[in-house]
């Protein structure tokens, strides 16, 4: 796992749970140092230990924590990584969701050892997009839901403008339908 993802979880924790919780997480996860270089690759157990400790110290269920991390990641990390202009409104959100798999694939050009989370989106109609997500690590549908709802907030799309349904969960893959109203 790259430092950029661990740093995002660190930032989420400090901002939402407090620095003292982050320190407890680091101690519980056995981290001697909490400095991660974004472009450096770290063994996956580091992330796993951080997440286990964060569930414990945050008081949130795993599903709720993953939702909040996904939502936060969409609002805070994606704008720093996305080179396009983030226009507001449903049309821009719809196009971003359709183009998001390309954005993720571009990250593999920057981070050569990146084991990509798989995203695929299909325009079903003018009112619907099917979004498929096969996560590499955070294998919880609530993470994916948090990401998609975070994108909606990022694009200033009110909750009443769309519905989000988990249509299928096959193993570690999640199939959502985003229905625009």
UniProtKB/TrEMBL annotation:
Every Heme NO-binding domain range: 2-155
A single MF term (Gene Ontology): heme binding
Transmembrane segments: none
InterPro entries reported for this sequence: H-NOX_domain_sf, Heme_NO-bd, NO_sig/Golgi_transp_ligand-bd
Protein name as annotated: Haem-NO-binding
